[in-house]
Each structure stands twice: as C-alpha cells, then as structure tokens.
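Dear Dr. L.,

I hope this message finds you well. Following up on our conversation about the binding site, I have prepared a predicted three-dimensional model of the protein together with flavin mononucleotide. For your records, I am including the exact sequence and ligand specification that went into the calculation, followed by the structure tokens. Please feel free to forward this to your student if that is useful.
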Amino acid sequence: MRLPIDRRPSSRGDRMKTLLVVYHTMTGGTEQMATALVRAAEGEAGADLAVRLLRAHETQPADVLNADGYVFCTPENLAAVSGIMKDFFDRCYYAALDRINGRPYAVLVCAGSDGTNACRQIERIAKGWRLRAVADPLIVCTHAQTPDEILAPKAIDAAALERCADLGAAFASGLVLGIF
Ligand SMILES: Cc1cc2nc3c(=O)[nH]c(=O)nc-3n(C[C@H](O)[C@H](O)[C@H](O)COP(=O)(O)O)c2cc1C
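The resulting structure of the complex is given below.
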C-alpha cells in the first residue's frame, strides 16, 4: 500500500530532495531493475523529488555529496560487486567519508544464482560511510547457468520488476515525507 504524500511546503522551507540511483550492468538485468525503481520513485513523488539515474562510471563524488539518499545497483560478478561498481566506490569513498553520515540507502543486485556476497560488500562500504539501510537488499536471480546463458541479454520478469518498483515508491515516499 502506498502512503499519500502531503505536498504542502514544510514550515522549514525544505529544498527539494534528491535520490541518486547508481548502477552498472553488463547484460541488461541490473539496468531494468534500476529503471523500474526510478520510474516508480518518480511516479510516487512527482515534482517533489529529483531522481537521478547514473551509470557507475560517470558518477562523481559531487553526485554522491549532493544527494539525500542512494540506491546502489550492481550485478554480482565472481562473488563480488562488478568491477565498474567497485571503481565507483573506490573513486567516491574518501571524498564522501564523514560528509554523508546517516543518509538512507538501499541495494539492488542482479545475480545468476546467488547475489549475497555483492550485498555484503555494499553493506560494508555503506557502514563505513555511516549510511542507514532503509530496506533489505533486493536480489533478483536470473538462473542463468551456462556461459552462453550468462552472457546473453537478460529480461527480468514482471514480478521482480514490481519488487524493484515497490522499493522505489517506498524510498521516494520516505524521502519526501522526511521519514528517512
Ligand atoms: C564474469 C561473471 C561472473 C559472474 N559471477 C556470478 C556470481 O558470482 N554469482 C552469481 O549469482 N552470478 C554471477 N554471474 C551472473 C550475473 O550476475 C548475471 O548474469 C546477472 O544477470 C548480471 O547482471 P546484468 O545483466 O546487469 O549484467 C556472473 C556473470 C559474469 C559475466
């Protein structure tokens, strides 16, 4: 169930908040998940929230500093976050350290059959950044097993995309309402 959003300006005259969604994808699964989340966040919050969907390689420390909440979206590759996603964290970690404490975050992982280690890695990085998880990590498994299946373009099923959308809507509501 979605909470109605009170769109009246707050007495504190708050500026519009920004949700930053950072992702990497190789065969398209993570991108579909991130896009479903972003569409739902935009649909939920309308003009009350800026939702930025950025590829990991183009995301800069300033993008992290200027956001109010984060969704980190990655494939699990070799029991880890993808290399490009790791590069994003490596480039931004110290520039943002102690400057984003307490901000909310969530995680999307697209995996073949597991995904837990990528989640664990992001949780450790987020702990260093003193971020606050607002949802359990959302893992979608494609069940690709063979090299050909793993390297093929992915089509994430509607039920899984709906879970991503629900998370996006809930995150957007929480930010706009000031719950997070
Ligand atoms: C090099 C490589 C390593 C992978 N390692 C894992 C893994 O450790 N665990 C897992 O569950 N899936 C693994 N996968 C499967 C991917 O997570 C899966 O194909 C997923 O759809 C990738 O997301 P993407 O479509 O956004 O690129 C691996 C795929 C590749 C190409």
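In brief: The chain is about 40% helix and 20% strand.

With kind regards,
A. P.
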